[in-house]
Specification:
The chain has helices spanning 3-21, 32-68. The protein has 69 residues and is an all-alpha fold. It starts with a helix and ends with a helix.
Length: 69
C-alpha cells in the first residue's frame, strides 16, 4: 500500500473519531448544519491534500526520469 493511501486513511479515521466525539445530539441546542459543514470541509481538505500529494509524486517521478535520460 502506498504512503499516500495510508496517510489518507489515517486522516479519514481521525475525522471519524473526532466526528463521533463531537456529535451534537447530546445537547439541547444542537446545530447540525454547522456540524456537517465542518465534516464536509474537512473531508474536502483531506482529498485536496491527497490530490496534491499524487500530483507532486508524479512531477517528482517525471523529473527523476528526465535526469536519467
Amino acid at each position: 500500500m502506498k504512503k499516500i493511501n495510508i496517510i489518507t486513511i489515517a486522516l479519514l479515521g481521525y475525522l471519524l473519531i473526532m466526528s463521533y466525539i463531537g456529535w451534537p445530539g447530546r445537547y439541547n441546542k444542537s446545530n447540525y448544519t454547522e456540524y456537517f459543514a465542518v465534516i464536509g470541509v474537512t473531508a474536502a481538505v483531506i482529498f485536496l491534500l491527497r490530490y496534491l500529494r499524487i500530483r507532486l509524486y508524479k512531477m517528482k517521478s517525471k523529473r527523476k526520469e528526465n535526469k536519467q535520460l
